[in-house]
């Protein structure tokens, strides 16, 4: 029995190494493909200037890539603390928490950037489904699919209560509605569109389906505290 378990361990470890390697190669490929527009914001970002860095899409994406080692360090620190406390699935929980925050906040920040007429142009609303998809274009649709993709991917891994397609759909749609309402109320010179909500929610669901094999279950420990030991009968 022990021999079979030991034989099963190396393939599992190898699979993890392969997945991590593929993820690193994928990120490196994306960074290489968009290196030119990102590097346009590099001087201002490296100098710590707000204008030209954190108020531009290229600047936010660049700092998101630069901050990946720090995010990995946070995952390692959280996992180490949980393993010391005897928490099961410490690495998975820590990665899910950092991933859904780090992969969502910068993209939401980009969607909340004001346009040239912010504060002057009144809020605009588009409530006709599928009307704005044509004007979005491939880049716009792809960007909207990614906004809550990290949330849809990691939230059901961390929380068993969200481990179902309807709940991921509701989570993505709800977060998207809040963003669209904020754009309208703050008069950011952006169109609050129902199509944005539909595409955002679809992106969350598709990402959630991609992580389905790692979804959390009710039988797993949801908190950072180990399970209490059962009292032995006298």
TrEMBL record:
Keywords: Membrane, Transmembrane, Transmembrane helix. The keyword Transmembrane helix applies. Residues 125-208 form the VanZ-like domain. Pfam families: VanZ. The keyword Magnesium does not apply. The chain crosses the membrane at residues 60-79, 100-121, 141-161, 168-186. This is VanZ family protein. It comes from Micromonospora globispora.
């Amino acid at each position: 029995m022990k021999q079979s378990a030991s034989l099963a361990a190396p393939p599992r470890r190898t699979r993890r190494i392969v997945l991590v390697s593929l993820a690193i190669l994928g990120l490196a490929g994306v960074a290489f493909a968009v290196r030119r527009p990102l590097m346009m914001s590099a001087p201002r970002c490296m100098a710590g200037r707000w204008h030209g860095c954190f108020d531009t899409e290229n600047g936010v994406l660049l700092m998101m890539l630069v901050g990946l080692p720090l995010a990995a360090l946070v995952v390692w620190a959280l996992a180490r603390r949980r393993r010391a406390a005897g928490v099961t699935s410490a690495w998975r929980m820590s990665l899910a928490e950092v991933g859904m925050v780090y992969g969502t906040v910068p993209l939401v920040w980009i969607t909340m950037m004001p346009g040239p007429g912010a504060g002057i142009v009144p809020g605009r609303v588009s409530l006709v489904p599928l009307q704005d998809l044509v004007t979005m274009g491939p880049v716009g649709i792809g960007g909207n699919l990614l906004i809550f993709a990290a949330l849809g991917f990691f939230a059901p891994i961390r929380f068993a209560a969200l481990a179902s397609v309807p709940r991921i759909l509701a989570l993505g749609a709800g977060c998207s509605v809040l963003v669209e309402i904020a754009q309208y109320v703050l008069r950011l010179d952006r169109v609050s569109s129902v199509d944005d909500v539909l595409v955002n929610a679809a992106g969350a669901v598709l990402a959630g389906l991609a992580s389905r094999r790692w979804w959390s279950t009710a039988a797993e420990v949801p908190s950072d505290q180990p399970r209490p030991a059962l009292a032995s009968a006298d």
